[in-house]
Amino acid sequence: MIGIQATSIYEPALKATAGELAIKTGIPEEVIIEKFGLYEKRVAPEHEHASDLAVAAGKEILKSVDPLEIDVVIYFGSPYKDYPIWTASSKAQYELGTKNAYSFEMMNVSSCFPIAVKVAKDMIYSDKSINHILLVGGSKESQAINYENPRSRFMFNFADGGAAALVSRNATKSEILASSIITDGSFHADVLVPGGGSVHPVSEEVVQEKSHYLDVPDPQGMKERLDPVSIPNFTRVIHEAVEKSGANIKDLKVLLPLHTKKSMFRDLLKSVGLQEEQAVYLTHHGHMSALDPCFGIHLAEKAGMLNQGDLAVIVSAGTGYTWAATAIRWLESAM
Predict the structure, then answer these.
(1) Four-residue CA torsion sign, 287, 291, 293, 295
(2) Is 332 exposed, middle or buried (0-12, 13-18, 19+ CB in 10 A)?
(3) Most buried in the list 33, 236, 259, 334, measured by CB within 10 Å?
(4) What phi and psi, each to the nearest 5 degrees, are found at residue 11?
């Protein structure tokens, strides 16, 4: 049985409270709490980068697993990493001591964790030489935001952290079931970092115009096209993942989504018939690129939300735009 056998998270020590964000952004503190759904978020210090955050999370899992038993290391975290053209996965493979593993990266911004879990399961299923895959991710996207740019307002909840998951052939904790993924590439140019790539290489002008930060060229245009399809696409991938797993949406017990504004979180729960206590909402962490659903599994298990036989779904969406969900059956009773 192929499943997620362990998860871990790493929380940077520094915090940015809703009050501090209000001062930075000019948005009232109560709006950040009530609309953004954020009391505080974690912020990594200058010396900690995405790879360091990923490694720190991975080390927690390897306290109870021999690093030499890991066959593959996959980095699934933020594309905003230590260096522009560089593999965080190889650094993780080395620093974690997983000498028998090869490594590579999966990059699909915030939607990546449900996809990475699917890929890990498929790799183990198709290759009998693979028994354990370690997924590691880091996010330092709080540093990629220009809080003076109102066009990037919806990204003011971007935060930092590390997360890891061990996917194993003979798992006893959970079973990875089916997945569903939708991409609508018409949104490919709606969220990006304008400067620093081959279109606008690094220059004095790029720095002066602050185009090396994430931006939304046409916020209203994106909203008009995204709002009508966002919840329907979230709902569709959740339903399809559950149904492809041989279950009914009424069997769904726990939802582990990315961190969104509070109204969208509530709409999403309503669309699949769940209550707020049946989901993890990262009010004290913020949105950490692809890491959110992995944080969700870890925090849900810690809170005793996952019981033997429960059907859970990890679900996320990433700019570009891709919606992804993977269903998981929990095999152990909560402690």
Answers:
(1) negative
(2) middle
(3) 259
(4) -110, 115
- In this prediction, residue 241 carries a pLDDT of 98
Residues 6+ apart with CB under 8 A from 117: 4, 135, 165, 167, 176, 179, 314, 326, 328
CA 114/CA 291 separation, integer angstroms = 10
Are the C-beta atoms of 235 and 268 separated by less than 8 Å?
yes
> What's the CA angle centered on 195, arms 192 and 198, to 5 degrees?
95
* DSSP helix/strand/coil, 312: strand
Domain boundary residue, one of 172, 202, 225? 172
Helix axis angle, 219-244 to 262-271, nearest 10°: 30
Identify the band that residue 219 occupies on the pLDDT scale cut at 50, 70 and 90: very high
Domain count, the chain: 2
- pTM higher than 0.85, yes or no? yes
CA-nearest of 311, 1, 45 to 169 is: 1
H or E element, residue 174: strand 174-183
